[in-house]
UniProtKB/TrEMBL annotation:
It comes from Chlorella sorokiniana. Residues 74-232, 250-384 form the Thioredoxin domain. It comes from the Eukaryota. Thiol-specific peroxidase that catalyzes the reduction of hydrogen peroxide and organic hydroperoxides to water and alcohols, respectively. Plays a role in cell protection against oxidative stress by detoxifying peroxides. May be an antioxidant enzyme particularly in the developing shoot and photosynthesizing leaf. It catalyses: a hydroperoxide + [thioredoxin]-dithiol = an alcohol + [thioredoxin]-disulfide + H2O. It holds the Pfam family Thioredoxin. Belongs to the peroxiredoxin family. AhpC/Prx1 subfamily. GO terms for biological process: cell redox homeostasis; cellular response to stress; hydrogen peroxide catabolic process; response to oxidative stress. This is thioredoxin-dependent peroxiredoxin.
Amino acid sequence: MRRAMARTLCRLAQTSEGLAAQAARPAAIGLLGAVETATKAAAAVPVRTVSTSAPSFAAETEYSNAVFYPEPEVEVGEAAPAFSLPAIVNGEVKQVSLDDYKGKYVILFFYPKDFTFVCPTEIIAFSDRAKEFEALNCQLLAASTDTPEVHLAWIKTARKRGGLGFMQIPILADVTKAVSARYGVLKRDAGIALRGLYIINPEGVLEHITVNNFPIGRNVDEALRMLQAIQYVAEHGEVCPAGWKPGEKTMVADPEKSLDYFSTVGGDEEEEKESGKLLKIRTKKDLDALVQSGKKAVIKFWAPWCNKCRMIAPHVEELADKHKGVTVASFDTTADELETLTAELGVKGLPQFRFYKDGKETMDKIMGYKLAPLSEAFAKLDKL
């Protein structure tokens, strides 16, 4: 602002011309001296700039009206930013800080504005189930950038008129918007908070963050499920798979021990469905009959536990449909009737493909799930 005043004074000093300017020269010299002094004083004050080029008078005036907020400080696995804010608690204005809840889990959720549309549905849903969270040693805190007085007026408004009514959780007032900014949820161009939800553990460490855009409300059941999963991991040291709920199976984060979980979730249905389109070899007699028929044939050796077998399965079906002159057979190496034969044939790596014509192997076997060499081999056998 000092720079702007200095430039204005300078312009006024330079606009007088002719005899009037000559007559006023001593006064102008004194004025210029004052401008020089003001300019030096302004230069001694640190000024933040918005570009590397010299700003225009209008741009600098606009910049002087800008509002600056703190940078985001949130990161999962790190300490949650501390705060102390006025809040409506049981109908009264009180100061609430994160430190008030040391030793407890905290779910802090921001919302855009009081007296709006989606917001009351969320806050009421959380408040009405506050006891469930309390039973899990968790405090719910709602927050927006409105004032405590507006919060109080909203609470005193009946729910059927868009109000909150009786609240079982504190409603925080982040009037300066500094806390919203530090939590990375402030929509700066709008000056209000997005729908951010944060789960903080008893040590003050952030365990979970989700942020929704303005029109999208959150799900209380999912917040509760996430809290339960976080607490289970903290207590038992095991990890929770997708969609886990209390009482369901978890897993140990270890390459070997995790197989105890994966063995219970199935997953062989895709392979069974794929092999249904292929000729199934169930005995040594079936294999001998196919080979001795003299037909062009591809035998796929696989196992239900083999993930690579499952990956290549859809492509094998496509190749079988494409090359009608080739018979494609499925050989389950884990079948009781075929285990001995598997060893006799020396089948080790899976998936494995062997190619037959005129009663004998006619090409080198292929192992693995890469599509290109298998496609080339099918085409070559089909042309023989």
